[in-house]
Amino acid sequence: MSEYNMLNMGEQTLGKVEIAPEVIEIIAAIAASEVEGVASMKGNFAAGMVERLGIKNYGKGVRVELQEEGVALDVYISVKFGESIPTVAQNIQDNIRQTLVTMTGLEAKEVNIHVVGVTFEKAIVEEA
C-alpha cells in the first residue's frame, strides 16, 4: 500500500504506526452491525459478487474518506421493519464513534448513515 492510503498515527517509541482505511472500514462495519435494528449492511454490486464466491467482506457497507480535517465515514444499511430509523441511525453513529476511539484513538469527523432499504420479517406459517 502506498503511504497516501495509510492513516499516520504518529511516531511511537519504537517506530511509527499507520492504519489502513480498510481496517477502519472493518471496525465501523462490525460496530454498525452490532446495533439493534440493523438488518444488514449494504455493499455495492462487486462486493455482493465477491461474497457469493465465499469470500467474507467484513467492511461491506462502509466507505472511509481520509480528509485533512479528519476521517469521514459513509455507512449503508438496511433497517428492520418497525424500528425507528432516526434512533437506529443515532445508535450506529454513537457506536461507531465510541468503537473507533477505543480501538484506534481516532475521532471521526462525520459518520453519515444512508438507509438504503427496509427488511421485513419472513412470515411464519403456523399449521393449526
Name some characteristics of this structure:
128 residues, alpha+beta, 4-stranded mixed sheet, 3 helices, 32% helix
Number of helices: 3
For the record, give the distance between the C-alpha atoms at the N and C termini, rounded to a whole number: 60 Å
Give a count of the beta strands, DSSP E runs of length 2 or more.
Answer: 6
Order of helices and strands: EEHEHEEHE
Mean pLDDT over the residues = 83
Number of domains: 1
Largest sheet: 4 strands, mixed
- What is the C-level CATH assignment? Alpha Beta
Would you identify the CATH H-level superfamily?
Answer: Cation efflux protein, cytoplasmic domain
**Structural class, from secondary structure content?**
alpha+beta
Strand content is: 25-35%
Compute the CA-based radius of gyration.
17 Å
What is the general shape?
Answer: elongated
Helical proportion?
25-40%
CATH topology annotation: Alpha-Beta Plaits
Q: Give the low-pLDDT segments.
A: none
Question: What is the correct CATH architecture?
Answer: 2-Layer Sandwich
